[in-house]
Each structure stands twice: as structure tokens, then as C-alpha cells.
Amino acid sequence: MEYGSIERELRIDATPEVVYEVVSSPEHLREWWPDDAELDPVPGAVGTITFGDPASQEAKVEQLTVVEADPPRRFAFLWVTDQGEAATQGNSLLVTIDLVASGDGTLLRFKETGFRERGWEAAVLEKAYTDHVNGWNHFLPRLVAYAQKLVARP
Question: What is residue 6's predicted lDDT score, i.e. its pLDDT?
């Protein structure tokens, strides 16, 4: 296996405008991905997402740096950066979410890259890649369900 990128394509019964809010705004992110999110969805902004109880020492906090914010077409961010470093293409993973209108819904194209570029040894690379595949396999269906639930509200 090459561990180069993770790519998914999902169909969502909601407009690109709705889906863009779901993938970029903290109040919506908290509903399908992290337990907490502090983020201004504008290019260059640095925020955090937290997995687990934010008050707990066991909580996992990840820095997120917004690379691109082009509503309602694309949202991209860098994350999984070593503590204390500013995020760059070489020391972080890049998540790009492209949204394309498709009938009365949206085609979401998800891509996460940068695994090999991190320079991790083989075992670390394989574990990180596998963890992210499993994570996105869990969270992306939640994104779809949440976006569709939003537009189904009366």
C-alpha cells in the first residue's frame, strides 16, 4: 500500500451552501466530527478541534490552519502538525473538501494528503494512515446524515 492519500466521494441531499456551512463552521463541525471546535473559517486562520472532553487531560487537541475558504465550493485546512510548529504543506496533513452541485444536492469530494511527506518511519506512517482511514470512514457518514437532517427540519 502506498499511504499517499485518502479520497472519498459522497452524495448529500443538501445544497452546496448548506454543506459548506457543515464542513466549515464550528457549531456545525461539533455535530459530526470533533467534540469541540474553535475556528474562524477564513484563509490563514488558526483554530483548534478537540476530541474528548475539552476539560479532561485525556482530550486530544489538534491545531487546524485554514488554507482555502471559497464558499460554497471549497474548504481546505492543514492539521496534524507537530506541537509548537506552524503548519506547512511539508509538516502537516492537508484536507481538501470540494463541493459540486448535483441535481438538488451536492457531490462532496474529500481528499486528505501529506502522509508520506511527513517523513514518518514506515510503522508510524502505516498506523497514522490506517487511523485516518478508519476515522474518516466513521465521521464522513455522520457529516452526510447531519447535513441531510439540517435541511429536513420543518
Answer: 98
pLDDT at 84: 86
The HSE-up count of residue 70 (CA atoms within 13 Å, CB side) is 10
Is the whole model's pTM more than 0.90, yes or no?
yes
From its phi and psi, is residue 117 left (phi > 0), alpha (psi between -120 and 50) or beta?
alpha
- Please report the beta strands in the chain, taking only residues with DSSP state E, as ranges in sequence order: 5-12, 36-38, 46-51, 60-70, 74-79, 93-102, 105-113
Task: Measure the CA–CA gap between 21 and 57, rounded to whole angstroms.
Answer: 30
Measured CA to CA in angstroms, residue 50 lies from 31, 67, 102, 109 at distances of 12, 19, 32, 24
- State how far Cα 27 lies from the chain centre: 14
| CA pair distance 114, 142, nearest whole angstrom | 24
For residue 153, pLDDT over 90 is answered with no
C-alpha–C-alpha distance, residues 95 and 76, integer Å: 5
Q: In what order do the strands lie in the sheet with 60-70?
A: 5-12, 105-113, 93-102, 74-79, 60-70, 46-51, 36-38
Q: Which 3 state secondary structure label does DSSP give 97?
A: strand
Q: What is the pLDDT of residue 82?
A: 87
Q: What is the largest CA-CA distance in the chain?
A: 51
